[in-house]
Amino acid sequence: MTRKEERELAFTLVFEKIFNEDQSVQEIVDAALEAELIEDNTFAVSLAQLTSEHTQEIDTLIAENSIGWRIERLPKVSLAILRLALCEIFYVESIPVKVSANEAVELAKKFGTQDDASFINGILGKIIREKDLK
Question: Range of 23's domain?
Fold first, then answer.
């Protein structure tokens, strides 16, 4: 599985977690594996779990930077992509910030709309500039 495919799987898990808040990421993974809906992938699962562990801090960042949008009102695709990208940016040192931001925009183009991609690019760009990340 390529890194892009792994990231797509992680996005799928984070997206699913939005609708199943009472389940752990591992429970979601186990159900999907049992139904043969996904391949087991350590990177994707660990990234989804890390995102889940830091959702509160990540959502605070999103809320502070998405002027006029409450977290509850964001499209779920955009929310999942933002959570995943911000997790990579702040908690996965091995992935360059620019790669995480670019991949988030590409996920939005594939799974959302052009408006989602522009919104995500704007939010991530603002956070990256404000936090002086490179």
Answer: 3-130
Mean pLDDT by 10 residues, the chain (134 residues): 95 97 96 94 97 97 89 94 97 94 97 93 93 76
Q: Which of 76, 80, 82 is nearest to 127 (CA)?
A: 82
Specify the residue for token string 């991949």: 103
Per-residue tokens: 129: 């500039």
The candidate with the shortest Cα–Cα distance to 31, out of 48, 52, 13, 47, is 13
CA pair distance 78, 87, nearest whole angstrom: 14
pTM equals 0.95
d(CA 134, CA 131): 9
| CATH, residue 110 | 1.10.940.10
Q: Give the whole-angstrom CA distance, residue 3 versus residue 22.
A: 28
